[in-house]
């Protein structure tokens, strides 16, 4: 088997428009296109970061709530590499985005911090 790369990441939102705004306006993803899937009563938007890394943003009529604490089995979080974690946290503060305090990766010593999308999905900033 030879996996070539990650093709896309799928995120289900409780409020599609609010999450689309968050990922595009706040985080800077490029909005590529969207489709309404009538049979599923669901929107699917395609967003790109830096010309790649596609995020498919979905809506569904009544999605289940994501388990919080203690952490549940499954994909834990999505991490973004940034040049300046502290500066990025200040930008998130200006947008009113909830985040944890700056900390250091115990294995690499690099700066990192977790923040949360409108549905509480954990996202990570990791300094290059």
Describe the structure.
Keywords: Metal-binding. This is Glyoxylase I family protein. This protein is an alpha/beta fold. The chain has two domains: 62 residues, 2,3-Dihydroxybiphenyl 1,2-Dioxygenase, domain 1 (Roll); 53 residues, 2,3-Dihydroxybiphenyl 1,2-Dioxygenase, domain 1 (Roll), CATH 3.10.180. Helix content is 16%, strand content 38%. The protein has two helices and eight strands; from the N terminus they run E-H-E-E-E-E-H-E-E-E. The strands form two sheets. A four-stranded mixed β-sheet has the order 1-4-3-2, with helices on one face. Strands 5-8-7-6 form a four-stranded mixed β-sheet, covered by helices on one side. The chain is globular, with a radius of gyration of 16 Å. It starts with 7 loop residues before the first strand and ends with a strand.
Per-chain topology:
Elements (H helix, E strand, L loop, with lengths): L7 E6 L2 H11 L3 E8 L4 E8 L2 E8 L18 E5 L2 H10 L8 E2 L6 E6 L5 E6 L1
Parallel strand pairs: 1-4, 5-8
Antiparallel strand pairs: 2-3, 3-4, 6-7, 7-8
């Amino acid at each position: 088997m030879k996996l070539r790369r990650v093709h896309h990441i799928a995120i289900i939102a409780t409020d599609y428009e609010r999450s689309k705004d968050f990922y595009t306006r706040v985080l800077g993803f490029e909005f590529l296109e969207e489709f309404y899937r009538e049979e599923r009563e669901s929107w699917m938007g395609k967003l790109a970061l830096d010309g790649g890394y596609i995020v498919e943003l979905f809506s569904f009529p009544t999605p289940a709530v994501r388990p919080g604490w203690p952490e549940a089995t499954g994909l834990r979080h999505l991490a973004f590499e940034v040049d300046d974690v502290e500066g990025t946290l200040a930008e998130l503060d200006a947008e009113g985005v909830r985040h944890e305090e700056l900390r250091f990766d115990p294995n690499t010593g690099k700066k990192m911090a977790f923040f949360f999308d409108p549905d509480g999905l954990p996202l990570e900033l990791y300094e290059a």
